[in-house]
Each structure stands twice: as C-alpha cells, then as structure tokens.
C-alpha cells in the first residue's frame, strides 16, 4: 500500500489557506509515468509530487492531466518536507534556502509552464472575476500598492480537469516577478501569500510558508489499496 502526505503551500501568515499538495514519498512504488499520471488524476490535487530520491531531492511533478518539468508550489512543498538544500527536477536543479520560517526556491523563468499574465486596474476587479470557461491558463493580477510591491492575484488553469481556480501558483508568481523585474508580495486565492523576486544570474526566487495538512495519511490513488 502506497501512502501519501498532504501539505499546504504558500499559507497566510497565520498558517491559513495555502494550496494543497499531494506528496508520494515512496516514488519507487509508482515507477511508471502512466501510473503516476493515474494516481495524480485520482488524488485530484492541482499537483502531486513523487519523491524518487529523498537525499538528492529528486522529484517528479504531475497535475491531474499532465507531467510538469517544473512547478513552484510542488518544489516549495517538497523542499520543506525533505529538508534539502536543492531539488532535482526534470527541468534542472533548483536551489533552496530557508529564512524566518519560510522556504524559498530559485528557478529560471523559462522553466515555468506557459501562463497568460493578465493585468487589471484594481484588486476589486480581480476579486470580482468569475471562473472563465476552459481555455488558456490565466493569472489575473492587479496592484494593491505598487510602491510597496503588493499584488492581488487569482489563477485559472483552464485545463478542464476539475481545478477551476488554483489557490496559490508559484510558477505564475515567478513569471510575474520576472516580468515586472521587482520583488513582490502576492495575495492569491482566498488568502494565500507568495513572495517572489529577481535573483542574480537570470534566476527568480519564489517562496512562502508551508504546513502539514492535518488529514491522515491515506493510500495513494488506489495504488495497492482497496
């Protein structure tokens, strides 16, 4: 029986909200891509991580419908859980650092999956948006306070796989920080908090707070389970 853990990544300052992440620590128990895709689909999280080597930080990332070479919230969550100073993804090595109870990762913007960054005139406009029909992956954002670098955002994957709105999206935050060329504090979804900003060498950092979800460990997606 293969179990999984659930983390909430990019929580608010008091540990609330955050995007749920499924983590299968024993990746060897689900070795094939087709089986991993099936497990990710059955679990239904926006992303599920399979840990292939916990000491090296080697991970494999899936949405319910596709495999991703890199994604922000899975990397931040996996780094917190494994306690490593780097991760190895299909896109490349991801540096990790810890500061004040936060986990931060560095990655290249070109690793991030395609996102449409759609600006709005006010935070109220972003908050009033309805979920669009399936189509392009949209990251809707507006300045809350441009001088302070605070942003209100919502994310609509548009994949038609049951994830209508993503609570906290590290890759999109990374792309927005790269696009604007400055440090940002982003409030996304119901109240998740993401920090992002440029780093030397063309890298961008994204980070936040991670907590373990209190729900008990469960068998993963029917792998060896009833």
TrEMBL record:
<dbReference type="InterPro" id="IPR003719">
    <property type="entry name" value="Phenazine_PhzF-like"/>
</dbReference>
<feature type="region of interest" description="Disordered">
    <location>
        <begin position="205"/>
        <end position="226"/>
    </location>
</feature>
<protein>
    <submittedName>
        <fullName>PhzF family phenazine biosynthesis protein</fullName>
    </submittedName>
</protein>
<dbReference type="GO" id="GO:0003824">
    <property type="term" value="F:catalytic activity"/>
</dbReference>
<dbReference type="Pfam" id="PF02567">
    <property type="entry name" value="PhzC-PhzF"/>
</dbReference>
<feature type="active site">
    <location>
        <position position="47"/>
    </location>
</feature>
